[in-house]
Amino acid sequence: MHLRAKPWAADWLAAHSDIVIDQERATAQIGQWQALFDKEQPIHVEIGSGKGQFILGMALAHPEINYIGMEIQETAIAIAARKSFDQVGKLPNLRYIYGNGNGVETYFEKAEVAKLYLNFSDPWPKTRHESRRLTYKSFLKSYEAILPANGEVEFKTDNRHLFEYSMVSFMDYGMRWTTEDYTLDLHADADKVDGNVETEYEQKFMAKGQPIYKIKAHF
Length: 219
What we know:
Radius of gyration: 17 Å
Structural class: alpha/beta
Strand content: 15-25%
């Protein structure tokens, strides 16, 4: 997702630094993220939050969990955070990181994050760009470094090639799943779609009749 720069974004982010943590502050926050929330609860992180529809929906649906949306684009993170703030104010269980998802172990310590979400990540289809895919082995190593034993990565995509690549990458890395943990058509599976929170991209692809692939993989 590449968005046109918004002239208000930088000033808004600066004025709401209690909601959006920049990359420098995020690296200094390692091991202390619970202090930014009203309650100490499990922390779930979405890498690549885009305009924030998913992470806001999850935070509203699950007040018993603390959520962090991570996004590298200034415009995207500003839109996501401002939309949330304008709709519901400062939620007690939702914060954002304006930073790069590559190297999340520099932001969180082992087991500080209970679960990760990867939603509609860039598929980087060219072979020479394989290492940029968020399910490439170097990224999986970073995820393992911040999740607890048996920690979970939940992955959704519209891209069949990326889905198949990711399943192989998970397996090669030693991650595991059962037939109950994945679907080739999320919205045609009544059991798995129950409680599903949709992203902007998800709604776009559904409108075109494209299936949504999903897997929950565990270390």
